[in-house]
Specification:
Elements (H helix, E strand, L loop, with lengths): L1 E8 L1 H5 L3 H10 L3 E8 L3 H7 L9 H8 L4 E9 L1 H9 L12 H5 L8 E3 L3 H11 L7
Antiparallel strand pairs: 1-3, 1-4, 2-3
Bound molecules: adenosine-5'-diphosphate (ADP) and magnesium ion.
Length: 138
């Protein structure tokens, strides 16, 4: 089943200038890039994007981090994109991420963990359309 999922290369990875290496790994894994842009999230966008985590103790810290510098948002498409992309990025905490995964290679901590990934097929669609108009997608 062809699915969409959203990658965000987070501010820690952009600061380290590893966005190119991360996007190359995603391409090499067979994901089609439908759209891509570098942006700096506003506080309102950061709060809205992570609204599902509003009640979690790290919400404030998460929003501050995500707006602390530019990010690269990438709309991806592939068969089973959601699960395959989450396998490619690895566990939320890089200390628990499998060898060879993007978070194992590029993340510093559970909070500053290099990349975002959608967690379900439905959220993949919702999150892609949060950042891209349909007319912007190849
Ligand atoms: P994932 O990004 O793997 O789907 P979650 O949806 O659980 O993980 O959390 C969203 C993001 O919030 C994580 O990617 C990470 O940046 C941050 N985060 C998660 N847990 C913590 C925590 N315990 N402390 C600080 N930040 C966290
Ligand atoms: Mg999540």
């Amino acid at each position: 089943m062809l699915q969409r999922t959203l990658c965000i290369v987070k501010p820690d990875a952009v600061k380290k200038n590893v966005q190119g290496s991360i996007i190359q790994k995603i391409s090499d894994a067979g994901f089609k890039i439908l759209g891509m842009k570098m942006i700096k999230l506003s506080e309102t966008m950061g709060e809205k994007f992570y609204e599902v985590h509003k009640e979690r103790p790290f919400y404030g810290e998460l929003v501050s981090f995500m707006i602390s510098g530019p990010v690269v948002v990438v709309a991806l498409e592939k068969e089973n994109a959601v699960t395959d992309y989450r396998t490619l990025i690895g566990a939320t905490d890089p200390a628990e991420a499998a060898e060879g995964t993007i978070r194992k290679m590029f993340a510093d901590s559970k909070a500053e963990n290099a990349v975002h990934g959608s967690d379900s097929e439905e959220n993949g669609k919702i999150e892609v359309s949060f950042f891209f108009a349909e007319s912007e997608l190849a």
